[in-house]
Design brief:
Blueprint: H1 22-36, E1 68-69, H2 72-77, H3 84-91, E2 101-103, H4 108-121, E3 124-128, E4 147-151, E5 158-162, E6 167-171, H5 176-183, E7 188-189, H6 202-208, E8 225-232, E9 235-238, H7 251-255, E10 264-271, E11 273-274, E12 278-286, H8 289-301, E13 308-312, H9 314-321, E14 328-336, H10 342-354, E15 365-367, H11 378-388, E16 400-406, H12 414-432, E17 434-446, E18 449-459, H13 465-482, H14 498-504, H15 507-520
Parallel strand pairs: 2-4, 3-4
Antiparallel strand pairs: 1-2, 5-6, 6-10, 7-11, 8-9, 8-10, 12-14, 12-15, 13-14, 16-18, 17-18
Helix pairs in contact: 8-10, 12-13
Length: 534
C-alpha cells in the first residue's frame, strides 16, 4: 500500500486535513469564555517553514538518502506525540529537541540499513507509529548525541490472510482505518478500536499494549496477537505462529508493551473475527454511583461478555451524555456475527435493574441483523459522539488545562481506591486550577476488577500550564500507586510514567529487563529513557 501523501499535523492529532479551522477554534473559545471568565483569542498557528530549529547534527549517507531526510517539515512533524502539553508547545513554535533525521524505510532491507547506521554511530533510534503517544513515548531525549526517528508508514500492507484460522499477517505501519478497509471485502475485522484509531498503527498498538473497542473479554491488543516479528540491533526476533503454547515464557510477551526499547516491530499475525451483524444497546441510569458499579461487577462476573460495559459517574454523564448531574449512566452493548443478542441485553439489563438501574423497555434497542441503529440515540448516542470526536487542538492555548489518567484495581479495593484517588487528586486540582472538574468512567471491565479512567480540567494562567499540570499529575500518580492500582492500564509508560512504573514493578524485573535490553541492544540506542534507563 502506498504511504499517505498528506503531511501530518504538527500541532494536533492526525493530518493537516484533521486540523480545526479558525472558525472552529473561535467557536470553542466563545463556548469556553464563560468558564474562563473572559474571551481569549486562540493563538495563531505558526507557518511550519518559519519555525526555528536547531541544526541537524547528522549527515545522511548517500546510500540512505532516498528514505532518510533532515528536512525541516519532517523533523518538526516527528518531534512530538499527542499529549496536550506537547501540542501546546508545538502551537507556540517551541521545538528544542527535534530528531536530527527522519527515516521512512520502504522495506525491511532499508530498515536494517537504517538501524545499523544508528547503532554504528551511537544515535538514538526512536520507532514511530502514528504519533499519538500521550506519555512522551516518541520524543528525543535532551541528552542524546543525535537521534533518528524511524517512521514505518511505508510498511503498511496486509500481507496475507488465513481465512481458515481467521488471522492475518499485517505490517506494523498500517493505520487502523486502512486495516479495516483491507479486511472488509472478506467479511472480516480485527475489531480493535482505540480512541486514536483513525491515526494510530498496528505496530504502535502492539508496542504499547493498547486497549480497544471491547470493554470485556477481548480488550487489549494482547488478545489478538498470534506472533510478532521485530528487528533488533542484534538481528531479527520472530516468534512462531501458534494459537497457544506452554513452551516456557512467551516470546511475544517481551514484544508486547516493549515500547520500542528492544526492537522495531515490522509485522505480526493478528487474530480476526467475522464482522458483527447482530447488536443490542441500552443506556441505564443509576441514582447511585456505587449501585451502578455493583451492577457492572455482577454483569462482568456473569460472563455475558458485552462489547461495551462502560459506566460514567454523574459528572461524566452530565458533561459527555447530557444527563442530570444526579445520575450515573451505564452503557451496555452487545454484538455478534452469528448469534442474536436480544437475550443477552435483557439479561444484563435485569442485573442492572436489580441494583437500582432505570431504563424504559423501549430504550433497549436490538438489531436482529437488519441494520437498524442501536447506539446513536439519546444519552448513549451523545456519549458516543463525544467519545469519538477527539480534537486535541481545538482549545489549545486558551487557558484550559485538561487531561486524563487511567488505571485498574480489583473489585474488593475499588470503593476505597476511588475515594482515595478523588480526595488526593481533587485536593491538588483545587489548589492548582480554577473551576476544578474531576470525573470518572470505566473503559474496560474484568471479572476481578474495573479499569477506571479519570478526567480532570480547570482554568490556569496561560504560560503556567506545564507547572500546574505537573502538580496534578504527580498527585494522581502517587495516589494510584499508593492505593494499589497500576500506573497505566492502556496508555503505556513512555517517559511520563517512569516514576510510577519504577515503584510498581518488582525490583528483580528491572534487572531482567536491563539484561534483555543489553542482549539485543548493547549500545542502548533504542528509545532511551522509555521503560528503563540505557
Amino acid at each position: 500500500m502506498t504511504a499517505r501523501a498528506e503531511r501530518r499535523s504538527f500541532w494536533t492529532w492526525g493530518y493537516v486535513s484533521d486540523e480545526p479551522n479558525d472558525a472552529q477554534r473561535q467557536d470553542a473559545a466563545r463556548r469556553l469564555a464563560g468558564r474562563i471568565g473572559e474571551h481569549v483569542e486562540p493563538p495563531p498557528v505558526p507557518a511550519i517553514d518559519e519555525i526555528p530549529l536547531p541544526p541537524s547534527r547528522l549527515e545522511v549517507p548517500e546510500r540512505l538518502a532516498p528514505w532518510v531526510s533532515t528536512a525541516t517539515a519532517e523533523r518538526i512533524t516527528h518531534t512530538y506525540g499527542g499529549h496536550s502539553l506537547e501540542l501546546l508547545k508545538a502551537l507556540r513554535g517551541e521545538f528544542d529537541h527535534p530528531p536530527d533525521a527522519v527515516a521512512h524505510p520502504r522495506d525491511e532491507d532499508e530498515l536494517e540499513a537504517t538501524l545499523d547506521w544508528c547503532d554504528r554511530g551511537g544515535f538514538a533510534a526512536i520507532p514511530y507509529g502514528g504519533g499519538t503517544s500521550v506519555v512522551w513515548g516518541v520524543n528525543v531525549p535532551p541528552d542524546a548525541n543525535a537521534a533518528v526517528t524511524i517512521d514505518l508508514d511505508s510498511l503498511n500492507a496486509v500481507l496475507e490472510v488465513d481465512e481458515v484460522s481467521r488471522a492475518a499477517r499485517i505490517q506494523a505501519g498500517i493505520l487502523g482505518p486502512d486495516l479495516e478497509a483491507a479486511l472488509k471485502p472478506r467479511g472480516l475485522t480485527l475489531r480493535h478500536f482505540p480512541q486514536s484509531f483513525p491515526w494510530s498503527t498496528v505496530g504502535g498498538w502492539v508496542a504499547t499494549r493498547s486497549g480497544g473497542h471491547y470493554a470485556t473479554n477481548h480488550t487489549h491488543i494482547d488478545d489478538f496477537v498470534e506472533s510478532t516479528r521485530m528487528l533488533t540491533p542484534r538481528g531479527w526476533f520472530e516468534s512462531r505462529r501458534l494459537p497457544g503454547s506452554g513452551a516456557g515464557p512467551s516470546p511475544d510477551r517481551l514484544v508486547l508493551g516493549s515500547e520500542g526499547t528492544l526492537g522495531i516491530i515490522t509485522e505480526c499475525w493478528l487474530r480476526l473475527q467475522k464482522r458483527p451483524v447482530f447488536r443490542a444497546t441500552a443506556g441505564v441510569r443509576f441514582p447511585s454511583w456505587q449501585g451502578g458499579c455493583d451492577a457492572v461487577r455482577e454483569i462482568a462476573q456473569a460472563k455475558l461478555w458485552p462489547a461495551n460495559l462502560r459506566i460514567l459517574d454523574p459528572a461524566e454523564a452530565e458533561f459527555s451524555a447530557g444527563l442530570s448531574d444526579e445520575y450515573a449512566l451505564l452503557i451496555i452493548g452487545f454484538e455478534s456475527s452469528e448469534i442474536p443478542q436480544g437475550a443477552n441485553i435483557h439479561a444484563a439489563v435485569d442485573i442492572a435493574r436489580a441494583h437500582g438501574g432505570e431504563v424504559d423497555d423501549d430504550a433497549i434497542l436490538v438489531d436482529d441483523g437488519s441494520g437498524s441503529p442501536t447506539g446513536r440515540r439519546g444519552a448513549v448516542g451523545a456519549w458516543r459522539n463525544a467519545f469519538i470526536g477527539v480534537n486535541a487542538g481545538l482549545t489549545a492555548g486558551l487557558g484550559l488545562l485538561a487531561d486524563t489518567f487511567e488505571t485498574a484495581i480489583t473489585w474488593d479495593r475499588w470503593p476505597d481506591f476511588d475515594a482515595e484517588v478523588r480526595e488526593r487528586v481533587g485536593r491538588a486540582l483545587r489548589e492548582a486550577v480554577r473551576g476544578a472538574r474531576l470525573s470518572c468512567r470505566f473503559t474496560h471491565v474484568y471479572p476481578d476488577g474495573p479499569a477506571p479512567y479519570y478526567s480532570f480540567s480547570g482554568i490556569v494562567p496561560r504560560g503556567a500550564e506545564s507547572e500546574r499540570w505537573r502538580v496534578v499529575k504527580q498527585a494522581a500518580t502517587e495516589a494510584v500507586v499508593a492505593a494499589g492500582g497500576t500506573v497505566t492500564h492502556h496508555h503505556a509508560v513512555g517517559r511520563m510514567h517512569r516514576d510510577g512504573w519504577d515503584l510498581q514493578r518488582p525490583g528483580p524485573f528491572a534487572d531482567l529487563w536491563r539484561a534483555a535490553k543489553r542482549s539485543v541492544d548493547p549500545n542502548g540506542i533504542l528509545n532511551p529513557g522509555v521503560l528503563i534507563d540505557p
